[in-house]
Amino acid sequence: xxxxxxxxxxxxxxxxxxxxxxxxxxxxxxxxxxxxxxxxxxxxxxxxxxxxxxxxxxxxx
Length: 61
Prior knowledge:
Keywords: Membrane, Transmembrane, Transmembrane helix. The chain is an all-alpha fold.
């Protein structure tokens, strides 16, 4: 009985360690994805605000 519990505990621990590292990778990936989308969004906003200035400067030249 105790032997079985110990085996189950070891299995649980291994599973936990596995899921923990997977969770960490998932979190890092989500963070990277979030930053990527955020930066794309910011770049689009900046470009849309600066486009008129650019077109005017091109017309001036």
